[in-house]
Structure formats: C-alpha cells, structure tokens
Write a structure and sequence with these properties.
Blueprint lengths: L1 H8 L2 E8 H9 L9 H13 L3 E10 L11 H17 L3 E5 L22
Parallel strand pairs: 1-2, 2-3
C-alpha cells in the first residue's frame, strides 16, 4: 500500500514530442490561434488532465522551416514562424526545435516498388 501512495505523488519525468507540421495543418491553420503557446497547451491542458504528477522536462518540436517561395504570405510567413519559435525558446529553456526539411512527391516512375530504371528503353 505504501508503494502505491508513493507512486502517485512522485513526479514522473515526461518529454513531449510535437509534430509541428501536422499540428499546424490539422488544428491551427485557418484559426486565430497562430501564436498558440504549445508548451502550455500540452503541459497544462492535455498532460495534466491525464497525469497530475507529470513533470515536463523537455519538449521536442519537430518542424520544417517555412519557405517564402512556397508560402501564401511569402516572407511574412517565414518571419512569423521564426518569431514564434524564438519566443517559445526564450520562454522555455527545455524546448528543442528540430528542423527537418520539406520533400516533394516523386513521380510514379521514381517511387519505391517501381523497378524500371531510368536507363531502360
């Protein structure tokens, strides 16, 4: 019995992993919440409702830099993403932004499973 009481009161170190691309396009785009504080959302609203004793020790935010040439608002979109990520990193020392890169779809002839060579007639 003593173990179960201890287990309920000891903070559980927790790392939050966020897929920024999917978060933006599935929940944020076309809403007024572009400057959403993702740490407070996940830590205070989502995580705490599931585990009162969770202690966030790190947030890993995966994203790809906005390219002005592809963005609807050009350099404004690029600057907004940079400002938002800098603000989060300035406020929370435990947030790590991991930048990937966007990829484009390959033509059908170059997809895995298509064994035709570009050199074949």
């Amino acid at each position: 019995m003593a173990f179960s009481i201890w287990a309920r009161t000891v903070p559980r170190k927790t790392i939050i992993y966020i897929d920024g691309y999917n978060l933006y396009y599935s929940r944020i785009k076309n809403t007024p919440y572009k400057w959403l504080n993702i740490v407070e959302l996940f830590r205070d609203q989502i995580l705490k409702s599931q585990d009162l004793f969770a202690e966030v020790v790190a947030v890993k935010y995966f994203t790809a830099p906005v390219k002005a040439s592809y963005a609807r608002h050009g350099t404004t979109s690029e600057q907004a993403q940079t400002q938002c990520l800098r603000a989060l990193q300035a406020k929370y020392e435990f947030i790590e932004v991991i930048n990937g890169f966007p990829t484009r779809s390959l033509p059908a002839s170059q997809r895995i499973g298509d064994h035709r060579s570009a050199c074949e007639p």
